[in-house]
Write a structure and sequence with these properties.
Order of helices and strands: HHHEEEEEEEH
CATH architecture of the largest domain: Orthogonal Bundle
Oligomer: single chain
Strand content: 15-25%
Helix content: 25-40%
Number of strands: 7
Bound molecules: zinc ion
Mean pLDDT: 90
Radius of gyration: 17 Å
CATH class of the largest domain: Mainly Alpha
Number of domains: 2
CATH superfamily of the largest domain: Winged helix-like DNA-binding domain superfamily/Winged helix DNA-binding domain
Number of helices: 4
Structural class: alpha+beta
Largest sheet: 3 strands, mixed
CATH topology of the largest domain: Arc Repressor Mutant, subunit A
Length: 122
Amino acid sequence: MYKNTEQKRIILESFKKGYFPTADELLQKIRKSYPDYSRATLYRNLASFCESGELKKISVAGQTDRFTNNVDCNYHLVCEVCGKIEDLNMPNAIQAPSKLLDYEIDYHELTFYGVCPNCQKK
Ligand SMILES: [Zn+2]
């Protein structure tokens, strides 16, 4: 068995820029190096990383939730054909008001859906 801190470290080290795995994809990747890694541990640690802000869950319509370590990026592009996700650095990020309809606003996210260059060629 792996120690608790080790189990957490393995997850964070599996991420790289532009990688948006589902929990299952992440588990497959981790199990290549750590065959005994348990699904329950992964799910528990993913939830705790999302809570602490080290990872972020991305919910895309019609897809399983994905995770990213680029937690500062609130804008994403999604290809409706192949499901690819990309971080989008918006040249003119929306300045969200701190209050809307008496809600105190913490953050906002924006997802653009379209067809990626690869899928356009097909
Ligand atoms: Zn595509």
